[in-house]
Design goal:
Elements: E1 8-13, H1 17-32, E2 36-37, E3 46-51, H2 56-68, E4 78-83, H3 84-89, H4 92-96, E5 102-104, H5 112-120, E6 125-127, E7 149-153, E8 155-156, H6 167-170, E9 175-176, H7 179-191, E10 196-200, E11 208-210, E12 216-218, H8 219-226, E13 234-238, H9 247-255, E14 262-264, H10 272-278, H11 284-297, E15 302-309, H12 316-329, E16 333-338, H13 356-379, E17 385-393, E18 399-403, E19 409-413, E20 422-430, E21 435-439
Parallel strand pairs: 1-2, 1-3, 3-4, 4-5, 5-6, 7-10, 10-13, 14-15, 15-16, 19-21
Antiparallel strand pairs: 8-9, 11-12, 17-18, 17-20, 18-19, 20-21
Helix pairs in contact: 8-9, 9-11, 12-13
């Protein structure tokens, strides 16, 4: 029996910025098929759950969300599970949740319209292939986003095979998008109103490609090319690997004014034995040396990192080494997690798994230190003048929220200003997670 063609859709993305980007691209693709975006799942004929597989709770949340899609009258929308959970679990998803009509992995979502047609006709609609050919060429041109900031994926996949991570299995091997495709998409985003672009990749600083003259380039060369685009005022990139921080990329932080003074560079642990067990291929010393080089060319750089607490075999001394590297670096922001075993990864079967109670206590200590550092970083901004890019409305009438070059959120009464404006502000107060500013008439320093 053929089902009615969906007329409305809703895409819900979980997890990282790359999933946000993928969700936007799926929305654009469904719009190009003549469908209309719905505000939420209750109004949608098809709901796409764009999933994350990094944390166990995120996987469980997907199945909870599937159950909640059944409506009061007993009906439900067509349900597509996309992203990394789809890639990892494949045909197990519709076996576990019969309501699911479509399963599509992150390297195959350009085939979503075809899979919708299969599901309409009652056929199995599953695609978790990871073809060598890039999916990006099959996607429609970027739609007008009408936002001042935008994500742009330039690299996907990972060849690092950290022992705790599923990304090489769910996103595949490292691939870099071609130079011209990236520049063209950047121009389209700028034409749509974006004045800040964040370049995305699982290992974004592993990007390589040839420029139009046939010269091999790394991420620094791409950033320098983006720097020349009229209308683009800010460039960011995430997430990076310490081993791919080349001298050229470090130099770009000192040379390229549009490249914002913010670097997210995960270390995961400060213990060399744990880093080796993680297959991180860098040491605590080499990580700190990279940061010293970056600070040498950009002394005001704000640093962010990732930390995993309770990796198998982590002793109190190993944990203390992580605490020490945090004290040495002084992070402006950071993400920290308890180790979560992911099926199929080498770490999941390692001996000496750490008890949950020990992980809880260590994570609390680590996050206390990180929160103190973030608050201190924010407090150091008080009394300074800077520029902020207004991104969204605040909670109060006339209040807008913008980001500093160092990725801090600033709340400001901005009567007469609007989202997308770059304005000068004096920072008058700071909290643990955001700042408050006042508009100044003179030009920001």
């Amino acid at each position: 029996m053929t089902r009615k063609k969906p007329q409305t859709f809703h895409v819900k993305s979980f997890g990282c910025q790359m999933n946000v980007y993928d969700g936007e691209r799926m929305s654009e693709m469904l719009s190009a098929e003549g469908m209309t975006a719905a505000q939420d799942s209750t109004d949608a004929d098809i709901v796409v759950l764009n999933t994350c597989h990094i944390r166990e709770k995120a996987v469980d949340k997907v199945y909870s969300d599937i159950g909640r899609l059944r409506r009061d009258d007993g009906t439900r929308p067509m349900i597509a599970v996309a992203g990394c959970v789809a890639q990892a679990e494949g045909a197990e998803i519709p076996r576990r949740a019969r309501e699911v009509d479509i399963v599509v992995g992150p390297q195959a979502y350009h085939r979503l319209p075809f899979l919708i047609e299969k599901a309409r006709n009652g056929e199995a609609a599953l695609d978790t292939d990871m073809p060598a050919a890039s999916k990006f060429g099959a996607l429609p041109s970027r739609a007008m986003q009408k936002r001042p900031t935008a994500f742009l994926t330039v690299q996907e996949g990972c060849d690092k095979f950290c022992t705790y991570c599923v990304v090489p299995y769910t996103r595949g091997a490292e691939i870099s998008r071609p130079w011209n495709a990236i520049i063209d998409e950047a121009k389209a985003l700028i034409d749509g109103g974006a004045c800040e672009i964040t370049l995305l990749g699982q290992n974004v600083n592993a990007w390589t490609g040839d420029d139009p003259a046939g010269r091999a380039q790394g991420l620094d060369g791409l950033i320098r090319a983006l720097d020349t685009l009229p209308g683009l005022e800010r460039i960011r990139y995430t997430t990076s690997h310490p081993n791919d921080m080349t001298d050229g990329l470090i130099a770009a932080h000192g040379d390229v004014e549009k490249l914002m003074p913010f670097l997210h560079l995960p270390v995961q642990s400060g213990s060399d034995p744990i880093l080796k067990a993680m297959n991180r291929s860098h040491s605590a010393k080499s990580y700190l040396e990279v940061l010293d080089k970056v600070r040498g060319v950009r002394p005001d750089i704000a640093l962010s990192g990732d930390f995993i607490v309770g990796f198998p075999g982590e002793s109190e001394a190993d944990f203390e080494a992580t605490m020490q590297i945090i004290r040495d670096v002084h992070y402006a922001q950071a993400y920290s997690f308890k180790y979560s075993p992911r099926p199929g990864t080498p770490a999941a079967t390692m001996a000496d798994q750490i008890p949950a109670s020990v992980m809880d206590e260590r994570l609390q200590r680590l996050q206390t230190l990180l929160n103190e550092q973030q608050y201190a970083f924010n407090q150091a901004s008080v009394g300074k003048q800077t520029s902020i890019l207004l991104e969204r409305a605040g909670r109060r009438p006339g209040q807008l929220v913008g980001k500093t070059p160092w990725l801090q959120s600033v709340h400001v009464q901005a009567d007469g200003a609007q989202i997308g404006d770059m304005i000068a502000v004096d920072i008058i107060s700071a909290g643990p997670n955001s700042l408050h500013g006042e508009i100044v008439k003179r030009k920001a320093a």
